[in-house]
Structures are given as C-alpha cells and as structure tokens.
Amino acid sequence: MKEGGENIFLEIPAAFGRAWRLLIDLPLPEAFDSEDHELHPALVMLNFPVIGAILGAAGYFISWLLTYFPGQLTGSIISAIIISGGLEVLSGGRNLGIAGSFFEMSLFKSSEGEPLLELNDDVTSARRPSEVIVMICLFLLRTFFVGLLIYSGASFWLITFLTAAHTVQAQLATAPTIEDGEAILPVEPSLTVYPWLIAAVIMVVTGWVCLPGVVLAFVLALILASLQRKYCIMKIGGVNGSIIGLAGYVTEIILLLTGIIFLVRQ
Q1: Neighbouring-strand partners of residue 177
Q2: How large is the average pLDDT for residues 148-176?
Q3: How far apart are CA 195 and CA 192, in angstroms?
Q4: Counting C-beta atoms within 10 Å of the first and last residue's C-beta, which end of the chain has fewer, N or C?
Q5: Residue 101 burial by CB count (10 A; 0-12/13-18/19+): exposed, middle or buried?
Q6: Which tens digits make up the pLDDT trace of 209-252?
Q7: Does residue 113 come out as left (phi exceeding 0), alpha (psi in the -120 to 50 range) or beta?
C-alpha cells in the first residue's frame, strides 16, 4: 500500500512536468522530472487546464499589482504588454509564429499547398514581409484585448480564456497525428471528458461574477475543440504539435473577444 501511494505521489508532479514541457519552454525544477516515470497519458492530459489556470492566475496577479500602483490606464497598458509578451516567451514564440504563418498563407494565398501542413513554428526564421506584418498584428490584437479587459476590471477573464484554450489543446493532443496516426496523448475517448470537468470547475469558481459569459466561453471552447479536431482529421488525416498550438492560439483570440463583448462597458 505504501509503495502504491508513493508511486501516485511521484506521478502527480511528474505528469504536471510532462504536460508543462509539451506546452511551455521554461524549465521546471527536477522534482517535476518525468523521465524516470511511466505515466498514463490521461494523467498528463488532466494537467493542461491546470497549467492554463496557473498562467491566467499569474496574469491576474500582475494586472492587479500594476493597476493598483501606477493606476488603471497605465497599469492596464503595462500589464497587457507584460502578459502578452510573457505568454510568447513561455512558448518560445512558437504559437505566434504558427498563427502568423497560417493566417498569412490563408489571407494572401502565398502557398499553393495546405496551410496546415506548412506551418512555421520557428519565430526567428526568415519570413515574408506579409507574414511578419500578420504576426505583429496578431500580437497587438491580443495585447489590446488583454489590456481592454484589464482596464474594464475583468482581469479574471485571463484565467477563463487560458484555461479553456489549454483544454482545447488537450483534446487535440488525443487525436491521431499526421506522422504515424498515434496520438501525442493516446487515451480512451471516455477519458477525454475529464479535462473539461476540471476546466468547468476552474472557470466557474474564478468567473462566477459573469456566469453567462463563462458558460458561453466554455461552450465555445467545446465547439472549437470538436470542429478543429474533426476538420484536421478529415482534411489532412490528423494533427501535429504545430496544429495543436494553432488551435490554442485561435481559441484564445475568440474567447478574448467573447470576454470583451460580455464584460467591457462603454
């Protein structure tokens, strides 16, 4: 009994560490090292919404601190820049690069192939001027949305949209990959509901002041996860890491806009 309890105790931080490494470039302490542990993919999957909530809570604390001292307007601007920039740093700029290449190819038809198969996740690589412009616009758009929500006193939405976006990524990580048909996180379909349950609890507890908006955000995230998964499987036969990152980024933008519609008052 003691041995089993110890294994569970070790698997929890190890699963968190593995999920973190799938999403974030920033290294964790050795206590979260999962190399020596055989982990059930479902346990790793459950940590995706938790990581989103942690990032959102960090953003909430930053916004609270900066709006309290410099003032609402100045603090909102500074907070939005730090939070948006921080999210890009944590992901190594991959998701911004991926989103920039996808929307540039989709808008300007700069590639004859399927955009989802030609995503560029290296933000430092040479890019077309139109691609750089799209990346800058996406970064400024997300920064503006975040700043507007903070200025309106709706910083809690940082937890809402990041929790939901990371849960969407968890769902796509259970889909077959393009390379070999094996999911990044191969779990039984019946288990994929549990990240949504965790996300629902987090979103309701932290966003109870605007339950209709939170419910809509949750439903939208469910729909986006389902549609993006089905589209990728039907169109190109599966997903890969870049497509999962793109799905998370698109979900973030949509849910940020949802928050503005519900929470920003003129």
Answers
A1: 239
A2: 96
A3: 6
A4: C
A5: buried
A6: 999 999 999 999 999 999 999 999 999 999 999 999 999 999 99
A7: beta
Give the tens place of pLDDT for each residue, 140-151. 999 999 999 999
Distance CA 167, CA 193 (A): 10
pTM, two decimals, is 0.91
6 pLDDT higher than 50: no
DSSP the chain: -HHHHHHHHHHHHHHHHHHHHHH--S---GGG--TT----HHHHHTHHHHHHHHHHHHHHHHHHHHHHTT-HHHHHHHHHHHHHHHHHHHTTTHHHHHHHHHHHHHHH---SS-GGGS----TTS---HHHHHHHHHHHHHHHHHHHHHHHTT-TTHHHHHHHHHHHHHHHHTTSPBTTTS--SS---GGGGHHHHHHHHHHHHHH-GGGHHHHHHHHHHHHHHHHHHHHHHHHHHSSB-HHHHHHHHHHHHHHHHHHHHHHH---
Strand partners, 131: none
* Separation of alpha carbons 145 and 152, rounded Å: 11
